[in-house]
Q: What sequence folds into this?
């Protein structure tokens, strides 16, 4: 069984569209995250959620709206997609918020905006 | 503010050579954790090691070893007798305990190519 899963794996869309990426973890973890990896491979935290509550929003444009229907899911909705949104998006989870907890990453979703 | 620097952008070695990947970090916290992750060509992120700021013991796991030195704020990673399967991008990352969020701050990665 996959610990952290993301769908879709690939997403190709036009500028201006709205799209969602889903993430689910079956580890029973309290905390989930979204990271963005740009074309230069730089990985940066976007959001962290703990028990469905937003903890950190790292200056991400408000076109990005995470939603956590329950603590096993953290979906990422992106409005009005722009070329610069093209990247690989990784979901991750950890047992809780305590610093140093290992984060388990999903396989990533490669988003291409044309 | 926290920062992780991996000065080596790309390294190429011939199979069976040893290679060291450098990582230097900055943080104001006295309690923090350091990580290494591997990202093979398939794209997933593979956890390799976690080290807390109070544990400066070096660690060895098979062909992998890590050297943590607080005095120089470095957490270097050595692969002994490299193999083609070691070809990947390697990331060093920092998590600060006092931030209360367990966010990982990544370095820019080092792309290692092992030539057969």
A:
């Amino acid at each position: 069984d996959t610990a952290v899963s993301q769908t879709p794996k690939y997403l190709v869309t036009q500028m201006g569209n709205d799209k969602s990426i889903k993430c689910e973890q079956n580890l029973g973890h309290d905390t989930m995250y979204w990271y963005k990896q740009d074309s230069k491979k730089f990985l940066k935290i976007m959001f962290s959620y703990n028990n469905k509550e937003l903890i950190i929003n790292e200056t991400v444009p408000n076109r990005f709206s995470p939603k956590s229907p329950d603590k096993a899911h953290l979906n990422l909705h992106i409005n009005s997609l722009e070329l610069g949104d093209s990247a690989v998006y990784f979901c991750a989870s950890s047992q809780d918020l305590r610093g140093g907890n290992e984060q388990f990453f999903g396989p990533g979703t490669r988003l291409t905006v044309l | 503010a926290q920062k992780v620097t991996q000065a080596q952008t790309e390294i190429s070695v011939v199979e069976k050579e040893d290679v060291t990947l450098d990582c230097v970090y900055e943080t104001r916290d006295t309690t923090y954790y350091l990580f290494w992750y591997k990202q093979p060509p398939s794209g997933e992120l593979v956890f390799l090691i976690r080290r807390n700021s109070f544990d400066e013991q070096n660690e060895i796991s098979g062909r992998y070893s890590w050297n943590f030195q607080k005095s120089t704020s470095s957490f270097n990673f050595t692969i002994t007798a490299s193999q083609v399967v070691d070809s990947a991008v390697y990331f060093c990352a920092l998590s600060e305990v006092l931030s209360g969020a367990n966010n990982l701050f990544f370095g820019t990665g080092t792309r290692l190519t092992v030539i057969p």
About this structure: The longest strand of chain B covers residues 88-96. Chain B touches chain A at residues 31-33, 35, 37, 39, 43-45, 47, 50, 52, 89, 91, 93, 95-106, 108-109, 111 (CB under 8 Å). The mean pLDDT of chain B is 93. The two ends of chain B are 41 Å apart (CA to CA).
